[in-house]
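Below is a filled-in request sheet from our internal design queue. Each sheet records the structural input a requester submitted and the sequence that came back. We keep these sheets so that new team members can see what a complete request looks like end to end.

REQUESTER: design group, bay 2
PRIORITY: normal
MODE: inverse folding
CHAIN LENGTH: 197
BACKBONE (tokenized):
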């Protein structure tokens, strides 16, 4: 129904934003990655959308990048994966990392995301590899990860090793990465931010 919405960020909450489009406020549920890209109030932006309709409610999901929406649509085709779980998966790791894990059949990244066990990770990989071509997930993977993407992965690995779940620190890591690609600085920034909460 809606391909995208273009407007002004009216408010931001954990996991959602309100986008003012011509005086109408649309609440969109978003991943940590999208949230980190549109966190400034009053900022004009375009979000690709997916409208989920159930008998008793309609829910809008927003995506900063069309590639993320494409990945989301593939995830909700997997049996047992609804829109909320798909959004949780997108919040658990960078899109390039998720793509690489599906292409390579590596369950460790998916199973490290909160709410995703090893069996669910195996089912996601199995069903997506059966029903999709590798091109569906070739999101800057073939040439390897950029330095910034690698710094995100390394930072998440270190923080997870310190007992911080990836899903809880991903957004903070992405924000810190905007200022530096040094892993030590990113980890320090995230830990300082968590201690100040």
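RETURNED SEQUENCE:
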């Amino acid at each position: 129904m809606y391909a995208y919405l273009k407007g002004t960020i009216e408010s931001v909450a954990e996991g959602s934003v309100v986008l003012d489009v011509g005086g109408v406020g649309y609440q969109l549920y978003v991943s940590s990655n999208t949230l980190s890209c549109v966190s400034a109030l009053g900022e004009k932006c375009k979000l690709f959308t997916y409208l989920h309709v159930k008998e008793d409610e309609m829910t809008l999901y927003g995506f900063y990048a069309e590639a993320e929406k494409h990945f989301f649509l593939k995830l909700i085709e997997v049996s047992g994966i609804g829109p909320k779980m798909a959004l949780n998966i997108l919040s658990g790791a960078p899109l390039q990392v998720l793509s690489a894990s599906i292409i390579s059949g590596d369950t460790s990244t998916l199973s490290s995301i909160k709410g995703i066990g090893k069996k669910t990770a195996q089912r996601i990989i199995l069903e997506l590899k059966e029903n999709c071509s590798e091109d569906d997930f070739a999101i800057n993977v073939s040439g390897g990860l950029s330095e910034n993407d690698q710094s995100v992965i390394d930072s998440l690995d270190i923080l997870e090793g310190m007992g911080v779940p990836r899903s809880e620190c991903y957004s903070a890591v992405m924000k810190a990465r905007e200022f530096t690609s040094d892993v030590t600085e990113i980890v320090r920034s995230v830990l300082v931010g968590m201690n100040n909460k």
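SHEET NOTES:
- Strands lie at 4-13, 16-21, 24-29, 44-53, 58-63.
- Residues 13 and 84 are 16 Å apart (CA to CA).
FILED BY: M.R.
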